[in-house]
Design a protein that fits this description.
Mean pLDDT of chain A: 90
Radius of gyration of chain A: 18 Å
Strand order of the largest sheet of chain B: 2-3-8-5-7-6
Radius of gyration of chain B: 32 Å
Structural class of chain B: alpha+beta
Largest sheet of chain B: 6 strands, mixed, barrel
Order of helices and strands of chain A: EEEHEEHEHHHEHEHEE
Mean pLDDT of chain B: 87
Shape of chain A: globular
Helix content of chain A: 25-40%
Distance between the termini of chain B: 29 Å
Oligomer: heterodimer
Helix content of chain B: 55-70%
Number of helices of chain B: 14
Strand order of the largest sheet of chain A: 6-7-8-3-9-10
Shape of chain B: elongated
Strand content of chain B: 15-25%
Number of strands of chain B: 10
Number of strands of chain A: 10
Largest sheet of chain A: 6 strands, mixed
Order of helices and strands of chain B: HHEHHEEHEHEHEEEHEHEHHHHH
Strand content of chain A: 25-35%
Chain lengths: ~240, ~400
Amino acid sequence: MPLIRIRDLTRHYVMGSETVHALRGVSLDIEKGEYLAIMGPSGSGKSTLMNLLGCLDTPNSGTYELNGTNVADMDDNALAEVRNREIGFVFQSFNLLARSDSLHNVELPLVYAGVPVEERVERARQALGNVGLAERLHHRPNELSGGQRQRVAVARALVNNPSIVLADEPTGNLDSRTGEEILGLFEQLSRRGNTIIVVTHEEDVAQHARRIIRIRDGLIAADEVNPKPRSAGASSLHAA
Amino acid sequence: MTLASEFREAVRIAWSSLRSNVLRTSLTTLGIVIGILTVTLMGTAITGLNSAFRKSVGAIGADVLFIQRFSWFSSEAEWRASRNRKELTLQQARDVERLSTFAKAVSVESNGRGTVQLDRRKAKGVWVAGNSEQSLEVRGLTLTAGRWLSPGDVQAGRAVCVVGSYIAEKFFPYGGAVGSRLKLNGMPFEVVGVLDKQGSFFDGTNLDNQMVIPITRFTEEMTRFPDFSIAVKVRNPELMEEAREELTGIMRKLRRVPPDAPDDFAINQQEAIVAFFNRVGGTIALVALFITSLSLFVGGIGIMNIMFVSVAERTREIGIRKAIGAKRRTILVQFLVEAASITLGAGLVGILIAWPLTLVIDQFLAATMPWWLVGLALLISTATGVVSGFLPAWRAAGMDPVDALRAE
């Protein structure tokens, strides 16, 4: 059974008198451990697909089974729980809490999961260590570089052992060298068995994935295996 | 996620949020501070007044009926009608004592003001009470030294007196009051007893600044047309109504009131004061409640406003939290806790201001700040925060994560 099983997913938005069909019926299977890129120009529907995959939004029709559970008809609270347990987000603009230090930012998913405080701190510490930020536990986001912030975000995404890491233009706000660093981190995570979905409009970024799905006008235009994924190479990766 | 850890996280967020907006937050809380200040001060004044009043009224005695010319509480029309009533006489008092079966003790009383003097020391405006031998029991007084007026003193109208503790201390600071002589309006009186300290009546009258002389002497020295009041201590406090009936009958007969005419006297009772006070106290409390709720309402609107601003400013943060797994309830609790923390803080400030003020007020008027009032004030301030923070918190909790994450 695939980790993600999507059938005929549609999503439209009503804007004034106009109805925008963002997704027109998308079907897709994603296996556990895949490293997948979703590509498409802006307006193609890839953000909508990402929101649905991330359980931030619900489709108008179709089914979405995540780990065997249909999440298409869940209510707000149930979705919040799924997001907490199954999905780790990495955003283009990092989306860290500005007033909290790295440790607390990474701790947050565990707080919402109801993990007791000692265990929580220990796991957050470990997650930050895994992305090479063991020395930056008590720095706030504005005391960190862009690359470091994105690593905190990756640590936060991973801390609750989610089924999928969902990254939305994760390198969009980083210079190319730092971007490579983050992509190298993803490769590492992928090798360790994490399922990674990167949503991007940059061909360079997508080329790191082993499978590339191209979206156009709300439909899957291509679903191809990347025969030779590009490696982030021996770039300055702080291995755990 | 458990409610407790949710709550802890909410407190943590609230604290850091408030700390980063100190000025804005403290300005908004002014309304609540004033509201809580009013709550505590009003409560303080009312409880203070209440306890002072109960103490004073207790001194009057619940089991005493006062036969007097006028009712304590009468409308202007009633007073007009009763203006020409004849005075009560000493003889009527004696007859009541003789005829009443419910009376345990009967005291004849009349009051005035006089000047007390010893050598060159002088006290003006001293409360002079004409009393009889049974007045000690009826008035519930106790003596520090000496004795009360004897039947002989009253019978013969002897120039003896019993003085309040204030008078005793003023004229005989080194003791030795009993046996000495004091001049009342120029006439010498021998001090035979000193009363225990009583404190002051709720209207501020110093009960220790008094001098008691035989009622028979009082009629000679103080006034030519004395107006007596006959105080009857009833044997069994449960039979107050029966005693009142009997006394009414006796007085009507003594004063020869025709059967179809209304009473030409009044029988007063402590209960009437209590009822009157409760009415006044109720009005004060109502006014206080109104002022308080008004300022709390205005303060609450301010809190609601600032919470809407806070929610709008943190839309992105709400989006992040939701994406990470915060439920509706989590966000709701977060903002409710924040609003409640603001108002609870304001409540604490209000109490901290009210406390020294209470001590100041206590110098003029009885005022105390009981613990339950502090608790109540804190409860009210927290509740105000929860109520006024609810709408903003509800809006935050209902936000769509996709939209919230897109916010700038």
